[in-house]
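Translate sequence into structure tokens.
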Amino acid sequence: MTRWRLFGSDHSPYSVKLRSYMRFKGLPVDWVPRTAETRAEFDSLAKLPLLPLLVAPDGTVMQDSTPVILALERRFPEPAIFPDDEGLRFVSMLIEEAADEWGNRLLAAFRWTHDRAESLSRTARMRLPHGTQAEIAAEIERIETTRLPKIFEVAGIEPGNAAAFEASLTGLSAALDKALKDRRFLMGDRPSLADFGLWGQVVQMRLDPTAGKWLAATPAVSRWLDRMMTPACEGIFAPAAETRKVLHPLLAWIAEDFLPWSLANMRAATTGEPDFQARLLGGGFRARSQRYSAKSLRSLIGAMPVAIDPDIALLLEETGCIPHLAAARNHFASYSQGNTA
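Result follows.
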């Protein structure tokens, strides 16, 4: 085998994120939709029942989109998705973390509440492309009774959190529109890890009627969503001073919603508390604590450089990110002896 094989779903933000990255790298990849027909092969390869799953030409199997991208980036460093500046690199990782962990919850909240019936039908038909009407109906019932309760628990989808979700989507769409108004990509004229992570979630939102209507009012975001389907290196990353101004609204959104949520979850997960509460821009938020999200935040904090370009340090400070990041670093440091997230 000389080509890569990517098992995924057009309904999965992490699958399309990795596919876009591989297109950018020019890696020969065959897209393998996970359907009833391919399920047996997928199950024989997967260590976890999660998409995407990438099979290398030598047969090596990889899962979890971010570690896969980082591994491929080491192997295929050009064209690079990280700026040389360590501060900019960290900002890119921070945005991607916010997308993967909080953006995915926004996607789920709108997809499975506002547009539940349509999303159930679309998902079932993707899994059973040749299914009969009865088989599609049975698959819809299976998803609704077995998958959705878990999604609701993990994402924190409940009536009391609706205001926080709606305010967060409003803030994200406005921040993205400002960031992309005069730029091809978030960090200049080539996509970064931040673009791939955030695009994967937002392009999925565009598929759904409710979130899609909100995004339709942001033309710069719509152009970026189209561009990221087959992204190309069109130049260089912008300098830190320019990026500070452009990404200010997006980092402020992260400080208002993602980081308070992530820290509250981290504290609960590391101390064994089953639930947590957080105060976000749109109001209170409560959910079950998630250990994976706490571990992911720990990895991000571990990548935070000691010395940061003054413009990037100021960006993190003036948007309110620094207090949250410092609190997370201090919390993890206190658990470094014999404790894990």
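Note: The chain has a mean pLDDT of 95.
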